[in-house]
Automatic annotation (TrEMBL):
GO terms for biological process: triglyceride biosynthetic process. The keyword Metal-binding does not apply. Residues 58-284 form the O-acyltransferase WSD1-like N-terminal domain. This is diacylglycerol O-acyltransferase. Pfam families: WS_DGAT_cat. Its EC number is 2.3.1.20. It comes from the Eukaryota. It is an enzyme of class 2 (transferase). GO terms for cellular component: plasma membrane. It comes from Aegilops tauschii subsp. strangulata (Goatgrass). GO terms for molecular function: diacylglycerol O-acyltransferase activity. Signal peptide: none annotated. The chain crosses the membrane at residues 214-239. Pathway: Lipid metabolism; Glycerolipid metabolism; triacylglycerol biosynthesis.
């Protein structure tokens, strides 16, 4: 491993496109883009963050520069070398491009600020990002809504990060209200002890039938896992997804308008369901979302 690290990396001649024109050749070094990142070519993560105070643009810019733009994926672009290999190439980050302060219709904001935020976030789904720059940006909406004093919308290409990693990164940028030098205290991880998370071996006194049921539960788990994996790869290779109201139509690379709708839930109600079902808060939220999508599907079908 040490010998491999000591070997010099061969420079690459990379071309990048800027507004349809070809830029000059540059000698750069970069890691190959993973196959999973290539599959996520047209997928973006959109995060809406509400703040309890008006937007402090200088402090926000300083935080983004020191906590987000410093990470290599957030200061890299995808470029093709002379051999046709797509690689991550480090570039210069201009916060003037990545932090956007849009000017919205003042009348629309005054009438319904929540709808103005929703409409603006929906419009982002139709706006492509410049591939000659790192594929992420912040959009700052500095006006009050029913749930926040100001709002920040972060849009990130899915090849840079997954949702959990991105939320972890954003949480690391936060600071405690009691001590601005310390990160916020995080709640302890939930202990999943319900029957749906464990398959304890039955005692010998339970009999052979109970033991057979216990073994059969693992057989079913292995079978369903195998079928799901097989269907997944078959769908990638030759099967087609069933047409549903969630299926997008159009040619590859075409941007479709998407609307992000959110609802606020009472945390005490969520915890009540959690305690009744003996599960985690995340399980409750996933169940509610699944039920909502099912109702929407059957209503539109």
């Amino acid at each position: 491993m040490e010998a491999a690290d000591a070997m010099p990396k061969q420079p690459l001649s990379v071309r990048t496109k800027t507004n349809g024109a070809m830029a000059d050749d540059r000698e750069v070094v970069g890691e190959p883009v993973s196959p999973s990142a290539r599959l996520l070519e047209d997928m973006y993560i959109v995060i809406i963050i509400g703040f309890a105070a008006p937007m402090n643009l200088p402090a926000f810019r300083a935080g983004v520069a020191s906590r987000i733009a410093c990470h290599l994926p957030f200061r890299s672009i995808q470029a093709t070398d002379k051999k046709g290999i797509l690689r991550w190439v480090e570039t210069t980050v201009s916060l003037d491009y990545h932090i956007v302060c849009p000017t919205l219709d003042a009348v629309a904001v005054a009438i319904d600020p929540d709808q103005a935020v929703e409409d603006y976030v929906a419009s982002l789904s139709t706006q492509s990002m410049d591939n000659s720059r790192p594929l992420w940006d912040f959009h700052l909406l500095d006006f009050p809504t029913s749930e926040a004093t100001s709002t920040a919308v972060m849009r990130v290409h899915h090849s840079l990060s997954d949702g959990v990693s991105l939320l972890t990164l954003l949480m690391s940028c936060a600071r405690s209200a009691a001590d601005h030098m310390k990160p916020p205290a995080m709640p302890p991880l939930p202990k999943r002890t319900g029957a749906i998370y464990a398959r304890p071996r039955p005692p010998a006194s339970a009999g052979a039938l109970a033991f057979a049921r216990w073994v059969w539960s693992f057989v079913l788990l292995a079978w369903h896992t195998t079928v799901d994996v097989a269907v997944f790869f078959a769908t990638i290779l030759f099967l087609k997804d069933t047409r549903t109201p969630f299926t997008t139509t159009g040619h590859h690379g075409e941007l479709h308008r998407k609307r992000i709708v959110h609802r606020s839930l009472n945390l005490e109600d969520v915890k009540s369901v959690k305690q009744t079902m003996n599960c985690a808060v995340n399980d409750v939220l996933v169940g509610v979302t699944s039920a909502a999508l099912s109702r929407y599907y059957y209503r539109k079908s």
